[in-house]
Design goal:
Oligomer: single chain
Order of helices and strands: EHEHEHEEEHHHHEEEEEE
CATH topology: Purple Acid Phosphatase, chain A, domain 2
Number of helices: 7
Strand content: 15-25%
Helix content: 25-40%
Strand order of the largest sheet: 4-3-2-1-10-11-12
CATH architecture: 4-Layer Sandwich
Shape: globular
């Protein structure tokens, strides 16, 4: 058994050539994992912005779509957790490629272990500003109104605000790095969410999230595990669940290298 997890590709940024280079590396990774993958979980923010009009989708990503269709055609289930950047994926990916979409968290069980799976945006204490914006984005009348914008206008406008939001988060992360010297995942909202959740449901063995771009693992107080998958902008990281447990890898150099684990 091998279950693969990856998150936060943010395809489309910072420019076409850089995004295409990452997309080609991603396709090479997908080509490798299809040899032994039983399931593939894409844990959100595959695109930096994605919105499906009734008859139009954002241009690009042909190599990725072709490879994902190849996986599903071979009978490998592919799941996409819609993140805060691709929240407006509706039915195109399911109808055309066979990808199952999720927005809320999902609990799965493999080898007698229970896994809590979510992109991670909006979970944990605080961040009330984003939680309000999240409700605005998910409000169907607002999605209907946005659809009336011409795609050239709507997509450009959304990409502008997406880049501003990401830049603000990068500034915050840089300040945090300067203060701590490295990312301490035990200070993250998702870690606090996992601690709170495991107190009410200690049966969960692993919490797997995307959203935050730093790959890592922290042992929780009940001896279960909090895992952040990292990203495919600078870390090119992913996780495998198999008979040995869970292991974090990087594919930065075009070959799998262990970051942490198994645990």
């Amino acid at each position: 058994m091998k279950i693969y997890f990856a998150s936060d590709f943010h395809l489309g940024i910072p420019d076409h050539s850089s995004s295409l280079q990452r997309e080609k590396l991603l396709v090479k990774w997908l080509d490798m994992i299809q040899q032994d993958a039983d399931e593939l979980y894409l844990m959100g923010d595959v695109f930096d912005f994605w919105f499906e009009y009734k008859t139009v989708i954002p241009r690009g990503f042909a190599r990725l779509f072709g490879k994902l269709a190849e996986l599903t055609d071979k009978g490998i289930p592919v799941y996409l957790f819609r993140g805060n950047h691709d929240i407006w994926a509706f039915d195109y990916l399911k109808k055309e490629i066979g990808i199952e979409l999720h927005r809320e968290h999902v609990i799965r069980e493999w080898n007698g272990k229970k896994f809590f799976l979510a992109h991670g945006d909006g979970l944990g204490p605080g961040d009330q500003g984003y939680k309000f914006i999240k409700k605005v984005f998910e409000f169907k009348p607002n999605q209907w109104l946005f659809r009336w914008l011409h795609p050239d206008i709507g997509i450009r406008l959304a990409l502008f605000f997406s880049r501003k939001s990401r830049y603000a988060n990068e500034v915050k992360d840089q300040k945090l790095l300067e203060q701590q010297g490295s990312f301490d995942l035990s200070t993250e909202r998702l870690y606090r969410f996992a601690e709170y959740h495991t107190a009410s449901d200690p049966s969960i063995d692993y919490y797997i999230f995307g959203h935050r771009h730093c790959p890592g693992h922290v042992l929780l107080s009940n001896n279960n595990h909090y895992i952040n998958l990292g990203d495919w902008i600078s870390n090119f990281s992913y996780a495998i669940v198999d008979d040995m447990g869970l292991t974090l890898y990087t594919y930065k150099n075009g070959e799998p290298e262990i970051l942490e684990g198994p645990f």
